[in-house]
Specification:
The protein is mainly alpha-helical. The protein contains 15 helices and four strands. It has one domain: Rhodopsin 7-helix transmembrane proteins (Rhopdopsin 7-helix transmembrane proteins, Up-down Bundle).
């Protein structure tokens, strides 16, 4: 009994202090509020921009899928984290609830990083291989997103088997310590759990390295100099004029900037959580020392805070990389979103240019009339009245020819003297 009480007191000392619990509660509530508002507004703004012609449908689908995965991570993970990891870390829970929670949380988490991978791949194909990108067909985005969610579910599927509720069994004991059952990996499925954790970590590294390489290839392509008569190609492989190609290149640079920022955010925010997961897979729980356990508990709080913070950063990165999105985002927060369709805006600008040209036309007409009046006698033909009043040159020709005939006759007369 005394040994049991001592072990319970040692476990109780691993809990955070009351001040730390309050601080983490406030921090988690702030992250949860910002994440729900930011990702919900992101979904709405992306759909509005797509309806008004400012975003392509494939980009909108990626943004909506990424925001949905972030929302699910926050809504599924943070309430459970507040209860089971901060306030009551060693409380009992249902075995089925434990398995379902671990599966859903893992699937939504890896859906986020795989959505980033599909977005990067699509931008890579559109910039580096536009004709192959066009040959993929119109439903390529839907297929990529379905593949991302399916792969994330497959990565999380082993957790339905290898996790559950289990009590802590010290190395020298055969039965669990009382009142210390919690949601964890099961001892009888240790090898399978270890394999799944290392596989998920390798997938995480592959996605980061792959996205980094694709961003590097896209930057190389966009840095290639354009010739004086060179035109670019859009995402569908169509030729566009040079000025439109420069504008398209600027928008693609913004996309690459967003991908680089989000990869850096995923590396910084996800790496502590990955290290924590590797600690659980490195040694069986029965082999953990007291110092190892203390380090794990300390890292757990920090790693989860950074992990949930990554779900809030995506709306911020959207606002940093796009002025149009930032304007629509702020208008939505102020409940006064008024966005004109891009075609109407183009039509309005063309009508304005036409009206300005119409104001110039009367001046041009007046100047042309003045020029005509000045040069009218030389350049314009006479009117019909002027033609009737003018003498006919054929009528005057006999009068002018008579003197010449008289002179000729006089010169031909013989001399009588």
């Amino acid at each position: 009994m005394e040994q049991n009480k001592e072990e319970q007191m040692d476990w109780k000392s691993l809990e955070p202090t009351h001040g730390v619990k309050v601080f983490l509660t406030v921090l988690y509530c702030l992250i949860l509020s910002l994440g729900i508002v930011g990702n919900s507004v992101t979904i709405h703004v992306a759909q509005v921009l797509q309806r008004n012609g400012y975003l392509q449908k494939n980009v909108t689908d990626h943004m909506v899928s990424l925001a949905c995965s972030d929302l699910l991570v926050l809504l599924i993970g943070m309430p459970v984290e507040l209860y089971s990891a901060i306030w009551f870390p060693f409380s009992s829970s249902s075995d089925a609830a434990c398995r379902i929670y671990n599966f859903l949380f893992e699937a939504c988490s890896y859906a986020t990083i795989l959505n980033v991978a599909t977005l990067s791949f699509e931008r890579y194909m559109a910039i580096c291989h536009p004709f192959r990108y066009k040959a993929l067909g119109g439903s390529r985005t839907t297929k990529l997103l379905l593949l991302a969610w399916l792969c994330s579910a497959l990565v999380a599927l082993p957790l339905l088997i290898v996790t559950g509720t289990e009590g802590h069994i010290p190395k020298e004991r055969q039965t669990p310590v009382q009142n210390l059952t919690f949601c964890t990996n099961l001892s009888q499925h240790w090898v399978m759990y270890r394999t799944s954790i290392f596989t998920a970590f390798v997938l995480y590294l592959l996605v980061l390295v792959g996205v980094a390489l694709m961003c590097r290839a896209m930057i190389v392509v966009l840095r290639a100099p354009m010739g004086p008569n060179e035109s670019g190609t859009d995402g569908a492989g169509r030729d566009v004029p040079k000025h439109e190609s420069a504008r398209l290149k600027a928008s693609r640079k913004q996309s690459i900037l967003f991908l680089v920022l989000i990869v850096c955010a995923l590396f910084v925010c996800w790496m502590p959580n990955q290290i924590r997961r590797l600690m659980t897979a490195a040694l069986p729980k029965s082999s953990w020392t007291a110092s190892y356990l203390r380090n794990y508990v300390k890292l757990h709080l920090v790693a989860d805070s950074f992990f949930y913070l990554s779900s809030v950063l995506n709306p911020l990165l959207y606002n940093l990389s796009s002025r149009q999105f930032r304007s629509a985002f702020c208008q939505t927060l102020l409940c006064r979103l008024s966005l004109e369709h891009v075609n109407r805006r183009t039509l309005g600008s063309s009508q304005a240019s036409k009206s300005s040209s119409n104001t110039v036309r009367p001046l041009l007409r007046r100047s042309l009339n003045r020029i005509r009046t000045v040069t009218g006698g030389r350049s314009t033909p006479p009117s019909s009245e002027e033609r009737q009043s003018a003498p006919n040159p054929t009528d005057r020709q006999p009068a002018t020819s008579e003197p010449h005939e008289e002179i000729k006759q006089a010169s031909t007369l013989p001399n009588t003297n």
